[in-house]
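Lab notebook, bench 4. Still working through the backlog of constructs that have no structural model yet. Next entry is a single chain of 180 residues. Request: give me the structure tokens for it.
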Amino acid sequence: MKLRWSHAVIYVRDLNEMVSFYTDALGFQVSDRGELDPNNSSPEIAFLSQVGSDHHQIAFAAVRGDGPSTTLDHMAFRVDNLAEVKAMAEKLTADGRATGLHAVNHGNAWSIYFKDPEDNGLEVFCDSPWAVQQPQIQPWDLAMTEEELRANTEEQFGKEAGFMPVDEFYTAHRRRLGEK
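Model written out:
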């Protein structure tokens, strides 16, 4: 059996604010919304997605109250390239509701991390051209060009265990998983 990430359900305090942030700042669309139990008065849930193949990638249930922050560390969303990572960082900065925005180079991925309005951790990343044994965490400057970041990544991680072109890694990875 193969498992792939499908969605996350997060308990929230302010459903409208969370839906607004995820639709306005991150580009999700509401696919459904309603009471958790339509037969009884109950809290509302909203389902959001960015892809046509999934009814929802994330859902928010307005049941959190004033208790502690969620136990979820972060949710990660992959984008196609570095330009999209940087565009998201610009959009989040302009939107102003995300907090703690910072860029992390994992060697195998170029990421931005931030918190949504209710302090849930999020990551938006693209793959780098290389694989390297994880975990690896180095900061990178969002002002860098892709060429500068590529050179920086190779310099920072080139001597680390498992550093190789990403295609070689995935060929070996598929073989280990019994795929062709």
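Notes after review: The first strand starts at residue 8 and ends at 11. The radius of gyration is 19 Å. Flag for follow-up if needed.
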